[in-house]
Amino acid sequence: MKRVAWLPSLLLLIVTLHTCLSDVESNSTVEALALLNWKASLLSLTNRSVLPSWTVSPGNAQANPCGWFGIHCKGDSVSRINLTSYGVKGTFHAFPFSSLPNLEELDLSINGLFGTIPPQINQLSNLTYLDLSYNQLSGRTPPQIGQLIHLKTLHLVQNLLNGSIPEEIEIGNLSSLQELYIDNNQLAGSIPSTFGKLKHLRLLHLSTNSLSGSIPSEFGHMESLNELALYKNNLSGFIPPSLGNLTDLTILQLYENKLFGLIPEELGNLKLLVFLEWASCNNLSSLQIARNNITGRIPPELGNSAQLQALDLSSNHLVGEIPKKLTKLTSLTRLILSGNQLYGGIPMEVGSFSQLEYLDLSANRLSRSIPETIGDMLKLYYLNLSSNNFSLGIPRQIGKLVQVNELDLSHNMLSGEIPTQFQSLQSLSTLNLSYNNLSGSITIFNELRGLVQVDIAHNELEGPIPDVPAFQNASIQELEGNC
Ligand SMILES: *[C@@H]1O[C@H](CO)[C@@H](O)[C@H](O)[C@H]1NC(C)=O
Ligand SMILES: *[C@@H]1O[C@H](CO)[C@@H](O)[C@H](O)[C@H]1NC(C)=O
Ligand SMILES: *[C@@H]1O[C@H](CO)[C@@H](O)[C@H](O)[C@H]1NC(C)=O
Ligand SMILES: *[C@@H]1O[C@H](CO)[C@@H](O)[C@H](O)[C@H]1NC(C)=O
Ligand SMILES: *[C@@H]1O[C@H](CO)[C@@H](O)[C@H](O)[C@H]1NC(C)=O
Ligand SMILES: *[C@@H]1O[C@H](CO)[C@@H](O)[C@H](O)[C@H]1NC(C)=O
Ligand SMILES: *[C@@H]1O[C@H](CO)[C@@H](O)[C@H](O)[C@H]1NC(C)=O
Ligand SMILES: *[C@@H]1O[C@H](CO)[C@@H](O)[C@H](O)[C@H]1NC(C)=O
Ligand SMILES: *[C@@H]1O[C@H](CO)[C@@H](O)[C@H](O)[C@H]1NC(C)=O
Ligand SMILES: *[C@@H]1O[C@H](CO)[C@@H](O)[C@H](O)[C@H]1NC(C)=O
Ligand SMILES: *[C@@H]1O[C@H](CO)[C@@H](O)[C@H](O)[C@H]1NC(C)=O
Ligand SMILES: *[C@@H]1O[C@H](CO)[C@@H](O)[C@H](O)[C@H]1NC(C)=O
Questions:
Q1: Best CATH choice for the domain 345-483 from the list 3.80.10.10, 3.40.50.300, 3.40.50.10860, 1.10.10.10
Q2: Predicted model pTM
Q3: Nearest CA to ligand 2 atom 11
Q4: N or C: which end of the chain has fewer CB atoms below 10 A?
Q5: Which residue has its alpha carbon closest to ligand 3 atom 14?
Q6: Strands 406-408, 382-384: parallel, antiparallel or unpaired by DSSP?
């Protein structure tokens, strides 16, 4: 009985609202009621102190959403909705796409939205900013997003979106787009070449998906591009030389793909290869193409990228010598070229890496002697030259590396005595000299009180075992194979 009585009164309320509000207010009333309809569909709201403001009371003639939490208006019409991080749980099923003609910004990131992004999203034709990141949205990205031609920012990071980035998205129609983040989803298929039409795109993040195929050479036409993050996909093929045309590129992250082919020489034109290395909070300017199938030589032109602070080309199939010109990268703090087939010597000019802290040239075919100038890289704390073919003696200048914490010269053809200057390496905690032809006495290590781990196996060293913890705790295997 109660229910029967209640329904007409609700109708009466709505009719009353509609009639007692003037024409000027009528649009905002429509928008208000439409938003309330969506609110009613939501399953929960973690932050309960937020949406109570979303209400129309009978006494309130102003059925106006403009004062509600998270809502901003232009005139009497909703222009911005921002409910980021308020525990909104629900779907877009009842979202009033058709009732918000002036909506320009929609930020529903970091919530519990699930289900699909419906094709009706195209009705928000004035949208310039759309952020649905960090939800559980699934299914395909509707091609209709391509009709939101005023979009400048589209963030869909970390959802469960799958399917391809279809050509039908007409991504190229979003000609105002400046930021596109769809990283951390389940996108598969190849990257449409129509991206090349996005002349204003500055930030493009498609990393951590399952995208395959090659990087379209049309990427070279996105002339405003600042950041290109394609890491952790299944991309194959060549790195298109056209990327060399992107003179504003500061971040280029391609690691963990199946890229192969030559590093295009044009990449050397990128003057500002600056990007935050994902694992670090520092502002590193770095180029990471590690763990791909890159072949060919290291282009000497990379030496022109004067801003470069980190260069990681490890675990590829690079051949040839380390170009002398690379030593012009005097801002480098990390240089990782391990796991390639580089040959020849370490360039004498290596001493000009005055900022270098981390140098890993291990597992290549480098040979000749370790240059004396290695001692000029005074900031080195990690030096790994293991598994190469370095010969002759360890230069005494190595003693200048007083910061060095980990030193690995194992698996080479080094001979002669360990220079007495080794005693200066007071920061050393890990030392591996195993599998060389080093001779002489190991009493030299008596001074290295900080050594934690030592491996000198398979040399021709002799003498009493030094009275430092690392030697006292060393296993037989780490000392064996000496005289
Ligand atoms: C109200 O809506 C009508 C129809 O949707 C539209 O023609 C009119 O311009 C709107 N008025 C305002 C003030 O937005
Ligand atoms: C809930 O919303 C209020 C009002 O905006 C805000 O001050 C508070 O930090 C929010 N709490 C949580 C847990 O998000
Ligand atoms: C939404 O609000 C949050 C703070 O609550 C703010 O950090 C964010 O920039 C806003 N989004 C937009 C699009 O203005
Ligand atoms: C919204 O779009 C309509 C046409 O699509 C246009 O007439 C109107 O000026 C736009 N409003 C804003 C605030 O840009
Ligand atoms: C995409 O996800 C939806 C829902 O999670 C699923 O039903 C569909 O099979 C998936 N499609 C593909 C191509 O993986
Ligand atoms: C994209 O633009 C082309 C013409 O440039 C047009 O034919 C197509 O319908 C547009 N697609 C969408 C989704 O608007
Ligand atoms: C890449 O493709 C292979 C098969 O071709 C598949 O097994 C693997 O899971 C894919 N990796 C990613 C990150 O999608
Ligand atoms: C680079 O840009 C120039 C001029 O815009 C163009 O002629 C050239 O073909 C582009 N190079 C590549 C490799 O795309
Ligand atoms: C690199 O190429 C070889 C074949 O040339 C292939 O076996 C290997 O899986 C590839 N590695 C990656 C990471 O794609
Ligand atoms: C990173 O750079 C920005 C500006 O370029 C600066 O404000 C910030 O302090 C830097 N952060 C670190 C950790 O160096
Ligand atoms: C040096 O490099 C080799 C091969 O890349 C690696 O196995 C070893 O652990 C590295 N040494 C140190 C001390 O990190
Ligand atoms: C290592 O270098 C020596 C000369 O110092 C050379 O005879 C030998 O062939 C090289 N070995 C490899 C595997 O490159």
A1: 3.80.10.10
A2: 0.65
A3: 47
A4: N
A5: 82
A6: parallel
